[in-house]
From TrEMBL:
Active site: E234 (nucleophile)
Molecular function (Gene Ontology), one example: endo-1,4-beta-xylanase activity
Lineage, top ranks: Bacteria, Pseudomonadati, Bacteroidota, Sphingobacteriia, Sphingobacteriales
Listed GO biological process terms: xylan catabolic process
Residues of the GH10 domain: 1-320
Listed InterPro entries: GH, GH10, GH10_AS, GH10_dom
Native species: Pedobacter chinensis
Family designation: Belongs to the glycosyl hydrolase 10 (cellulase F) family.
Name used for this protein in its record: Beta-xylanase
């Protein structure tokens, strides 16, 4: 008998965001990534501040390590992210320049990064989180300096640097309701209609276990209705969104979480096969998830526990197909 793994049992790629220092230093983490997943996203190592800490300096070592690991183990690499308003280095936050100089900064960064990983990184989140929850464009430093049309140009710059790379628009909150997701879909459809090279939509899906199913399935089916590839790009399911400090994990909570993972996987499995780019969880186990440290609370958002063991959520994922 062959051991059950996510990559071996699911009909589309199964990914994890990977923390490079854990990959290097923690053998249990590394073994679990190697065994379970066939797609890898860098949790932080390909963000602007990580790769490009000063104007003329690029630091590739962590990202290269991750890419080399992935290729040596037959895993796809998804790039995250060429453009975001967070994780920017001080030199960008403080950059004084004309519009042309800002455009050059954007273009140079995108083309240097995409060029460096050409032929190794098959897909990119080109622009991340450009839409507010009320559906308006987020007033980021990029919009302030370049206007909202910079979004389309970011895709064109990436495409010029690697015409074979699949290019995604990535955001969270499609499941909040029609307001935000309609704005995202309008943006994506507008890019398509202008001939901008966009191949896919990333739905982050950082959700809470109380998230209603109707909005989850609508998030997936409306994204698929664009005809683009759909990537569930950063999934985790929080069990303690109200920040209860002394909460402990129970089997009942695990079962609710498993049911929510199953609902999502089932809705995803229902879209056309050609559009199923894959499902990526945001890190590997509950002990390395960004949720507890970011929100300063106990939580258990992922399918593996702190001892690298499968939780109920793992079976929930398998049950979705
Ligand atoms: C998070 C990482 O997980 C953290 O380690 C880091 O401190 C901040 O960024 N949406 C995204 C991801 O697109 O890049 C974020 O990752 C989580 C939210």
């Amino acid at each position: 008998t062959v051991e059950t793994t996510l990559q071996g049992n699911m009909p589309f790629p199964m990914g994890a965001a990977v923390n490079v220092s854990l990959l290097k230093n923690n053998i249990n983490y590394r073994n679990l990534v190697t065994k379970e997943f066939n797609s890898i996203t860098a949790e932080n190592a390909m963000k602007f501040a990580s790769l490009h800490p000063s104007k003329d300096t690029y630091t590739w070592s962590d990202a290269d390590y991750l890419v080399d690991f992935a290729i040596a183990n037959g895993k796809r690499v998804h790039g995250h992210t060429l453009n975001w308003y967070k994780s920017l280095p001080d030199w960008v936050e403080n950059f004084q320049g004309t519009t042309a100089e800002w455009e050059n900064l954007l273009k140079t960064h995108i083309q240097t990064v995409v060029g460096h990983f050409k032929g190794k990184v098959v897909s990119w989140d080109v622009v991340n989180e450009a839409i507010n929850d009320d559906g308006s464009f987020r007033n980021t430093i990029w919009v302030q300096k370049l206007g909202v049309d910079y979004i389309g140009r970011a895709f064109q710059y990436a495409h010029q640097a690697d015409p074979n790379a699949l290019l995604f628009y990535n955001d969270y909150g499609h499941e909040f309701g029609p307001t935000k997701r309609t704005a995202i879909l309008n943006l994506v459809n507008d890019l398509k209609s202008k001939g901008i090279p966009i191949d896919g939509i990333g739905l982050q899906m950082h959700i809470r276990v109380t998230q209603n199913d109707a909005n989850l399935t609508a998030a997936i089916s409306t994204a698929a209705a664009t005809g683009l590839r759909v990537h569930i790009s950063e999934i985790d399911i929080a069990l303690n969104p109200d920040n209860i400090q002394n909460m402990t994990y129970t089997a009942a909570m695990g079962d609710q979480q498993a049911a929510k993972y199953k609902t999502i996987v089932k809705a995803y499995h229902a879209i056309s096969k050609a559009q199923q780019f894959g499902i990526t969880q945001w890190n590997v186990t509950d002990s390395d998830s960004w949720i507890p440290s970011t929100y300063n609370r106990p939580d258990w958002p992922l399918p593996f526990d702190a001892l690298y063991q499968k939780k109920a959520a793992y079976q929930g994922i398998l049950d979705g197909v």
